[in-house]
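Quick one:
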Amino acid sequence: QVQLVDLGGGLVQAGDSLRVACVASGRSFTSYVMGWFRQAPGKEREFVGAIRWNDGNTLYRDSVKGRFTISRDSAKNTMSLQMNSLKPEDTAVYYCAANRGYLTPSERLYDYWGQGTQVTVSA
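Output:
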């Protein structure tokens, strides 16, 4: 089994930067994909981005391209999401998730989930 812990989050102003991280414990597979989803109040959970562990290939939703960057630290089994130029529309609970190798935005294919961390961006 894999357990995921979401770290970071916080309250920032529009235009600021913030980094959140996800730490995996238990058995981690190099073939896995780790990604981020977010859910704002009253809205459906949506895909943010993901990284394939084997080759570092990434996938992002259009609204965060050029602003958000996902990276991984294999030695620490840690994935980070660097968020720059934050907007109020980015306010949400951010969830780390993992699946068995599909670089995909499809939520149903992700097997493991973190507890979430709150990111709030004020205008």
